[in-house]
Amino acid sequence: MTHSEDGRSRRYVDLVGERLRRIRQERSLSLQEVCNRSGGAFVVSTLSAYERGKRSLSLERLLELAEIYGISAPSLLEVDDSADVFTDLSRNRPLRINLTHLDRLSPEERRPLENYLEFLRTLRGDPTREILTIRKDDLAYLSNLYGVRPQTLKDRLEAQGIIAS
User: Of 3, 27, 33, 156, which is most buried, counting CB atoms within 10 Å of its CB?
Assistant: First the structure.
């Protein structure tokens, strides 16, 4: 497998994980509740690893999750694998967050982002007040907080002028 194919396969695993999380959250289920419904076939750490794309699903596990969620197994694999998603998020360029534009978000939208950015600033010892860079992993974490795909969150923040060019 070429490096490019490996990257696309890795991204597909990530996208399936995001889909699993979204389906679970749409059903208002916690990871523990899914484990309970599985009769002990799953543990929280394994489900979490599937959702984060850190572990690949076997066909047997895919079928079990589809049954728990009450959907077909193929529908679990239906993800947006457009070229934009692969190329845009696969670049490891840091994103520049314009801290002075955070007030463009509603207080409910702004709070999780502000809290995480303050955590990063403290962790890094970064006194900056205008621009803070975040990595792809930070965007993935934030998108989980918001319950959306990383590209969706990135697009939203760009539209608000929060991600600086």
Answer: 156
